[in-house]
């Protein structure tokens, strides 16, 4: 009995012929030949048989003794017979010699070359070749060590078809094609000269078919004599063709695997995410090179290491979720958590993994990617903060408007009372009104204090605006101090050291947000209740380049050196949980950087902290020239119209302006529009925000019907808190009188407008 074995490169049996298990129970597909060295004991007998025609000996094959006989056939083929009891196993020399080539994983051209040589050794005087069916659908020569150049041309870049050569026909039909005489076969009638020059008379072709029934090429033997292959020849070629199919399929799989790995590496390199492959069986974890670029790590990284890099606040949740995914054998797993970079800062990552399972359904690998979404989270947090600031800003502007209305009549009436009191004191010198005067002055000081607070609240409410202009940082610092006073007063003495400082170009509201945050942080670095021994120093000045410099220095507990580089990172905070978002300093850094400036910190434990903000001075060409003042000339008595829905504001203004001008008041804008054309006022003071009709609508109606009167409008506002009102005031370019106003401001505005009106007729 003769048994044929087809071995993979690692020695695993792919296919065996019937009856193999009678030779040895282990000879079955999937088993691995462990005793290949015993086969090599046969090779010296083969060499002896070539010279002596026959040789025999007993060898140890596995744990059993076998009688081996080698016989030389007439055509030069050496047949090897292994005999144990009644079982004979016949192997050709070609099979034994090719075992080493296949098992050593040689490249496909080398394997095909050895297959051709084995075929030529089995058929003395013959020539062998292997052609392959390429991805382009054409036939290409794979190997042919002794093939004549003319025959090489017939085997290269031809479309397979019937009637165009034995190999081409074998590929198309998937059947053997035996041409016994090339000189008489109709397939080669047009190539008689080529056949004569080659000296070959027969052409036998076997299709090479993989185990998936795909034809991948053909194996050909060209003989010097006419005839067809004998049975033993077909047996030999059957083994060689199977070897060729195995080698070609193995090479294809290797190429496919390499292409997949190459694509994987390209994807891993091109991706902005970090890709990982965790072998759950041996706990080996591999990371793509992007790990170094994104998080700074380049050393060997294990699962335990990854777990140690999770933020303490996220670790238990994330690890538990991963374990649950493995236990429940889910296909996917995903979590968002904080991951420590090599520099110690924290990144917010989204981790998505896909589980692979073995044949038993047990998870074997977890392949996934980590995406650093810190920037997105910061953007989302900024958007949320912007929305909150916009809400706070709208609320602040509304509150300012509501407060400024009563403040307007309070301050105006106080001013009027003080003026009247001064007049009475002059007329009745014997009357003592000093205490009344002091009380009124104290009341006015309190009203001024409220006015300052409201003004600073309005500045802060404009933080979300993108409009930039020339900013006096000392003015912004005073606003920030007003807003932070309640946080500071119970913790420290505030010292101002304001030196000359250049104007900067920026957004007043956003800079107020920066300095307010720094002041509150400084206050929070100090414990309550020890005000006399603690201080916050706020200073301004210029650096050597003429830029504006602001320093906020505290005598607090300071910042540890290991966390100092992280304080401007998003979501990093040293405050207890629930007392800080970790966004304040990150947003401050972003605002200052957007203005071309820098923010730095010097700190040490027990020595306090100093935050230094440097802002580039405004370019000379961007500074505005001062508005020239009108020459001082006698102002004639004019007609002043007042429109406001607050009667108390109208009464206060009438008291201030009545002695100098004829004043007409209106609480309803519609009535004012009807009366103004006949009244022909020199100036119209009109509130912007009114319930029935806004100052904007009053202006547009006058522009349509009486444009001259529209040009005499002066708008009064306690804080135009709607976007449309702000846009209107920017576009209308009309004078604005901010509430609460002073007596001097109201009278000056009225006098200037009356003078212009009378000058232009």
Description:
The protein has 761 residues and is of the alpha+beta class. The chain has five domains: 5-101, Beta-Lactamase, CATH 3.30.450; 106-255, GAF domain (Beta-Lactamase, 2-Layer Sandwich); 271-372, PAS domain (Beta-Lactamase), CATH 3.30.450; 467-624, 2-Layer Sandwich (Heat Shock Protein 90); 639-760, Rossmann fold (3-Layer(aba) Sandwich), CATH 3.40.50.2300. Helices cover 43% and strands 23% of the residues. The protein contains 23 helices and 28 strands. A five-stranded antiparallel sheet has the order 8-7-11-10-9, sandwiched between helices. It has a five-stranded antiparallel sheet with strand order 13-12-16-15-14, sandwiched between helices. Strand 27, helix 22 (723-732) and strand 28 form a beta-alpha-beta unit. Helix 13 (374-427) runs antiparallel to helix 14 (434-461). The longest helix has 54 residues, at 374-427. The radius of gyration is 49 Å and the shape is elongated.
The level of helicity is 40-55%
Q: Estimate what percentage of residues fall within beta strands.
A: 15-25%
The tally of structural domains comes to 5
Mean pLDDT across residues: 77
- Main beta sheet strand tally, sense and closure: 5 strands, antiparallel
The outline comes out as elongated
Low-confidence stretches: 34-38, 86-97, 577-582, 621-631
Alpha-beta classification: alpha+beta
First-residue to last-residue Cα separation: 131 Å
Q: Can you identify the CATH class of the largest domain?
A: Alpha Beta
Number of helices: 23
Spatial arrangement of strands, main beta sheet: 8-7-11-10-9
**CATH-level-4 superfamily name of the largest domain:** Histidine kinase-like ATPase, C-terminal domain
CATH architecture of the largest domain: 2-Layer Sandwich
DSSP strand count? 28
What's the CATH topology name of the largest domain? Answer: Heat Shock Protein 90
Cα Rg = 49 Å
